[in-house]
Structures are given as C-alpha cells and as structure tokens.
Amino acid sequence: MIGKEIVNIKDYESIVGAETVQRVLDKAEPLRDLHITHINSTYYGGGVAEVLSSFVILMNSVGIKTGWRVLQGSPDYFGITKKIHNALQGSDINLSDRKKEIYESTVLENSIRNHLDHDIVIIHDPQPLPMINHYRKRGPWIWRCHIDLTDPNRELWNYLTRFVEKYDAVILSLEEYKKDLETPQLFFPPAINPFSIKNKDLSEQEIDDRMEHYKIPTDLPIITQISRFDKWKDPEGVIEAYKLIKKEVDCTLVLLGNVATDDPEGDKVYKSLLDECDDRLLILSHQDTALVNALQRRAAVVIQKSKREGFGLTVTEAMWKGKPVVGGNVGGIKYQIQDGENGFLVNSVEETAERVVQLLRDKDLCSEMGKKAKETVKSNFLLIHLLEHHLDLINSFESSFKIRNKHDVGQHQE
Ligand code: UDP
C-alpha cells in the first residue's frame, strides 16, 4: 500500500517507548501549523540531504508544516562552495573578489526565485548562507552548519561572519566547534532514521541479493568504508591500511561511495583510486541505499578513517547495525565512538590496520562492541532526538519572536 512506509512519530514507540514519544508530541503541540522551510544545496549524496530527507517528513508528522528547498547553481558556483567547504575544514583558499561575486550573486538569484515568508527559515551549510541578506525577516532564521569547524581558514571565517551574525541562532554539531560570535550557538548532533531503506532490518537473503547483484565476494570477511569520495575521508589511507591488514588476515575491502551534486571533486577522487582495484579490493560508485545497508550489515568491521568529519552519519549508521567501527579520531567521530568501548578511535594508517586485525581475530569483541554501539545510537542519535532538540529551540523563540502558533491562528480566524 502506498504510504505505509512513511514514518510517523508514533513508529518510534517501538524503539524509545511511548513516554518519550508523548513528551515530544507535547512539545510539538503549541507549534502546530507553524510553517518552516529548510534550505540546502543538494537533494542527495552526503549527510545533510540524508538527514533532511527523513527529518522534514518527521516534522510534518508532528503537525509542523515543514518544507525543503534546494539551491540551484552552476558548476562554477559549486566549485567555489566546495572550496569554501574545504577551507572551513582548514584548507587554504584564494578568496578573490571573483569568487565572492559568483557566490553572492548565485545566492541572490536563488533569493529572487524563492519567496520565503515562512515563520522560521533554517539554512544549511555555507552554500545558501548569504540568503539572509535578501529578505525581511518574519521570524527567526537559523544557520545550521554541519561542517567540522575545528580550525577554519581565518580570512574566510571573517568574511562569512558578516552573514552568520545576521542569524538568530546557529546550530553546530558539536560544542567544540563553538565560535566567537554575537549570535547564540546551540549544539545538536545529527541523527538517523532507523526505519529508512538504509537503516531498517534486512533478512540474510536480502543482504545476499545485494552482494550478488554487485558481485561482492562474501567468502572472506568484509571490511568497508562507505563515504563520498573526498580527500577528508582518506580513502587512500584506508587502502594503505588494507595492505597491512592483508598481511595478517585475509579479507575483502569494499570502498563504496556516491557523488553529491554539490561536490564537484568526487569523480576525480574516485578515478584516482581505480588503479588499486583487484578482485579483493573493490571500489564502487553507486547511488544505492539498500546496498549501503546490506554492506554495513554484512561487514565484519566498518572503517571511517576521516581526517575531518563534521559528524559522520556513516559511523552512526554502522553502529546502529551493531557493528564495531574503527574511526578517525576527529570531529563527530570521537563524539560517537568511546575508544575501546563501542569501537576504536585511530590516528594513523598503522593503528587502523592494528585495530581492524584485532577485531577480525576476535568475534566476541566485535559483538560486544557492536551491542554497545547500537545502544549509543538508540539513546542519542535517532531523528526523534534531533526533533526534540529543534522543538525546544523553537519553543524558546516564542518569547523573543511573535511566532504564529495555533492559538494565534485561531484568534485571527475569529
Ligand atoms: N552515502 C550513501 N552512499 C554512498 C556513500 C555515502 O548513501 O555510497 C550516505 C551515507 O550512508 C550517509 C551520508 O551519505 O548517510 C554521508 O554522511 P556523513 O555525515 O557520513 O558524511 P558527509 O558526506 O556529509 O560528509
């Protein structure tokens, strides 16, 4: 039946209990009929689109009219915004007037096309950030930045601050990304939808089918990293680690990635790796969420060897499936993995190899860590938790902004 798989807040009762769901519904009640929009720069590929595709539906299920718009831009524009993304994570950037002109004028065009008269506007990441310059605010504007802001390029950050400080609140993924800003800052970790095709339970047969479809051999233990092809995810480092692991334990490595429309570097990184492929080292580029699910479930160990990571939903997704993750000791990964408890944090290729070998040799350790990993996600990183954080924030705005709520609407209609 069409629609039966649309997630409703009530579905979460089976995971977090009826009391938690009721608490969230109570917080949503005064906000019913608010009209909110999210704006980002791609419908798929990457963590932001992943969160929005489920989160927007969940917000509607508690009665908040929530939409999602995607910014349009030329390859030039996305080339520049990817440079901005990289520089926010610490790379150099030549912030020329030409780049600023293309960035700001593309945002202006989008602002002309989009008529935003919502009660609340939530802007994601730097691509649409300057939109705030082009509207008369009718309610709070929130900038939600998903990037690892540990060490942003100074010049760029100073340039962006002039936009950021026009917002009424900034949401960052971790407290350690806090910046020196006039604007109030909040810290909400992203979250996953446990019912989506990417995360729901799969039968062994369904997993086998996906493996067979992509000709992934299952006779040896599988280790995998699933990520956009991006230098910050360090796919080269994973391949180097795999070469060390192979000397100790025979296994298959699968690197799976997809390409986001707002990330023009992905294809180049993917192609640069292809020489390494053999029948035990697979480098796949597909947009297939069921394959992500199957691979995370079939893998003995999941790797996420990032050098920078705003949060790292791939880590959350694998942990939800009861997998031990060997993750780079950076950004949001170290917030999810408690080293030696529910996974391992690593700082080098050698350490990655060592920990993967340890796990491949010790099934009990894998299942013990995997169980704890799942509990971590259940208590902290499901979309119902993220929804509750947003409801608390929006409720807190009521005092400083005249947000139209059900009660006000009723009064107008009388
Ligand atoms: N992803 C996917 N297919 C792939 C690679 C990644 O669907 O081949 C998804 C992955 O499952 C996760 C998101 O893209 O939901 C990546 O989010 P994350 O926070 O890990 O990293 P980002 O790409 O946002 O830096």
Compact description:
With 414 residues, this protein is of the alpha/beta class. It contains 16 helices and 12 strands. Strand 11, helix 12 and strand 12 form a beta-alpha-beta unit.
| Order of H and E elements | HHEHEHHEEHEEHEHEHEHEHEHEHHHH
What fold name stands as the CATH topology of the largest domain?
Rossmann fold
In round numbers, the mean pLDDT is 94
Number of helices: 16
First CA to last CA: what distance? Answer: 40 Å
Named CATH architecture of the largest domain? 3-Layer(aba) Sandwich
Number of strands: 12
Helix content: 40-55%
- What is the number of domains? 2
Poorly predicted regions? 405-414
**Main sheet specs:** 6 strands, parallel
Bound molecules: uridine-5'-diphosphate
Radius of gyration: 22 Å
Observed structural traits:
six-stranded parallel sheet, Rossmann fold, alpha/beta, 43% helix, binds uridine-5'-diphosphate, 12 strands, 414 residues, 16 helices, 14% strand
Description of the molecule:
By secondary structure, this protein is α/β, with parallel strands linked by helices. The protein has two domains: 2-191 and 382-402, Glycogen Phosphorylase B (Rossmann fold, 3-Layer(aba) Sandwich), CATH 3.40.50; 204-380, 3-Layer(aba) Sandwich (Rossmann fold). Helix content is 43%, strand content 14%. The chain is built from 16 helices and twelve strands. The chain has helices spanning 13-16, 18-28, 47-61, 75-88, 97-113, 154-164, 204-213, 235-248, 266-273, 289-298, 313-320, 333-336, 349-361, 363-380, 383-397, 406-413, and strands at 35-40, 65-70, 120-124, 141-145, 169-172, 185-187, 222-226, 252-257, 281-285, 301-304, 325-328, 343-346. The chain has a six-stranded parallel β-sheet, with helices on one face. Strand 10 (301-304), helix 11 and strand 11 (325-328) form a beta-alpha-beta unit. Helix 2 runs parallel beside helix 15, helix 3 (47-61) crosses helix 15 (383-397) and helix 4 (75-88) packs across helix 5 (97-113). The longest helix is centred in the C-terminal third of the chain and has 18 residues, at 363-380. The two termini are 40 Å apart. It binds uridine-5'-diphosphate (UDP). Residues 46-47, 50, 198, 226-228, 256-258, 289, 292, 311-314, 317 line the site of uridine-5'-diphosphate. Residues 46-47, 50, 198, 226-228, 256-258, 289, 292, 311-314, 317 line the site of uridine-5'-diphosphate (UDP).
